[in-house]
Structures are given as structure tokens and as C-alpha cells.
Write a structure and sequence with these properties.
It is a single chain. The chain has 10 helices and 8 strands. The protein is an alpha/beta fold. An 8-stranded mixed beta sheet has the order 1-2-4-3-5-6-7-8, with helices on both faces. Helix 1 runs parallel beside helix 10. InterPro entries: AB_hydrolase, AB_hydrolase_1, AB_hydrolase_fold.
């Protein structure tokens, strides 16, 4: 079978995880350590920027998936990050993997931190993007920010991510439109949208992560690349700097004039750095 390296052409597959069907997509070389993508609030398979997926899949096997109760995956969405992490680990093992790299974006970055701390032998390297530590400053305000920007988007006939992920500078607005258009490149076999119940459960999990006591990040010994925009409103950028300081083996990249979706706005630079990091 030819190697698929275009996310828009990657078929959606399913796997049984303890009696629950999980939906996923897999592309790139079928060798080496796979990179598991962990998604953001309200996101399904179609919300990954194809430039990021395709760029990393050019050299690494990439696996994206809908966690429990999200998109085309069955079950009830957990109300805690810890439960989401357990489901992600079960999914990874159901595919037969015992060593992976993680790319966690936003909520997915919370999940990645729990996996690395609780299952250290499973994780080789980790990329944490647009995310922050437990108890991080401003994370508990994600719900009102999300709801307000979703209302603004509805009133202006835009995708909420244009407000949530990008700055409102001229450059940010242009990058936002380009990103939203890239998400529409896949026209066949698109994923189901997230349900209202799953969305609410994710918001509850994020709020609890934001108010819980800080975790001991010194137990995460894996190499970590921390990336974000320098003007993140959802998970304030200071949280990325905090992660990089507290993790024993981490490096930090902040993209200029960029918000929560900095890795999508600066996808060329991010992919280049991610490939160098994963291959080192």
C-alpha cells in the first residue's frame, strides 16, 4: 500500500478500546516512533491544521483520534483531564504501541502532561502547544472567553477559532482566514461535530484543571518542546514560559503576533522545529 502523507486523503478508521469504538486516522511512514496528536477543546479529527499534520507526517507516522464521546468515537466524554488521559493511553495500547511521541495542543497538552507523568515508559518525547500546567494562570477563565468569542463569531458569521486562536491585528486576521480555509480542504468522509454534552464535559475538565493544585512537573523527564503564540488569550502565554521553567528538559518557542493557534499561524516554522526536535 502506498504511504499516505496528505491528511485530507487519509481514511477514517476505528478500533475497539475496551468495548468502545474510537475513531482515528493514521498517515505517514509505517516505521519509527508514532506521533500521537491530542486535540483541543471542541475539536474533532477535521480540526487539525493539515499543514501541521502533513508536515510532520512527511517523516513520522502521525495518528490523530477522537477521544471518548468526541466526534465519531463512542462513549461518554469524561469530565476530568485524568480520565481523558487514561482513555488516550488505552487507545494507544489498543493500536499495539508501547512507545510514542505526543503532540498535545491546548486541552490535549493537559492530557499529554498526565500521560507523561503517569506512564513515563510510554512517552519518548513530547510537544506541548498552546497549553499550560495544572493551576496555571487564567486557565479557569477558558469557559467565559470561549462562550463570548463564540457569540462574537455568530454575530459576524465567522468561525469562533478566528477570535479564539488568533490576534486581531491585520496579520492575525489574515492568518485566521487562511487557517479556517485549510480546515475545509477535506471534502469527503468528514468527522461528526462535537455534541453539546461532550463540549460541556470538556469545559468542566478544563475548569477543574485550571483550579487544581499545581503538579510536580519535575517527574516528567522526557525532552519537551513548548510552543505558543506570544499573545494567547485562552491559555495565557505566561503558562508556556512556566512550563518550560518547571520541566527538567524543555525548550520554549513563542511566535510573534500570534495567539492560541500560534503553531497554525506559523506552521512552517513550527513544523521545521518539531521535525528537528522529534528527530534529535
Amino acid at each position: 500500500m502506498p504511504v499516505i502523507t496528505a491528511y485530507k486523503d487519509t481514511p477514517t478508521q476505528t478500533v475497539d478500546v475496551g468495548g468502545t469504538t474510537f475513531a482515528y486516522r493514521r498517515l505517514g511512514p509505517d516505521t519509527g516512533t508514532p506521533v500521537i496528536f491530542l486535540n483541543h477543546l471542541a475539536a474533532v479529527l477535521d480540526n487539525w491544521d493539515p499543514r501541521v499534520v502533513d508536515g510532520i507526517a512527511a517523516r513520522h507516522r502521525v495518528i490523530t483520534f477522537d477521544n471518548r464521546g468526541v466526534g465519531a468515537s463512542q462513549g461518554r466524554t469524561p469530565r476530568s483531564v485524568a480520565a481523558m488521559a487514561r482513555d488516550a493511553v488505552a487507545f494507544i495500547r489498543a493500536l499495539g504501541h508501547d512507545r510514542v511521541d505526543l503532540l498535545g495542543f491546548s486541552l490535549g497538552g493537559f492530557v499529554a502532561q498526565v500521560i507523561a507523568a503517569e506512564e513515563p515508559r510510554l512517552v519518548r518525547r513530547m510537544i506541548l502547544a498552546g497549553t499550560g500546567p495544572a493551576g496555571g494562570e487564567g486557565i479557569d477563565r477558558v469557559t467565559p472567553i470561549t462562550l463570548l468569542d463564540s457569540l462574537r463569531a455568530a454575530l459576524t458569521f465567522k468561525d469562533p477559532k478566528e477570535y479564539l486562536f488568533f490576534t486581531r491585528t491585520a496579520n492575525g486576521r489574515t492568518s485566521a482566514r487562511q487557517f479556517v480555509n485549510r480546515l475545509k480542504e477535506r471534502t469527503d468522509d468528514r468527522d461528526d461535530s462535537i455534541s453539546v454534552t461532550a463540549f460541556r464535559n470538556q469545559l468542566k475538565a478544563i475548569h477543574e484543571w485550571g483550579v487544581q493544585r499545581p503538579s510536580d512537573l519535575s517527574v516528567i523527564r522526557q525532552p519537551v518542546l513548548v510552543a505558543n503564540g506570544d499573545h494567547d488569550r485562552m491559555v495565557p502565554s505566561g503558562n508556556s514560559a512556566d512550563l518550560a521553567r518547571r520541566l527538567p528538559d524543555a525548550r520554549l518557542t513563542l511566535y510573534p503576533d500570534a495567539g492560541h493557534g500560534g503553531i497554525f499561524q506559523h506552521h512552517d516554522e513550527f513544523v521545521a522545529e518539531a521535525l528537528e526536535f522529534l528527530g534529535s
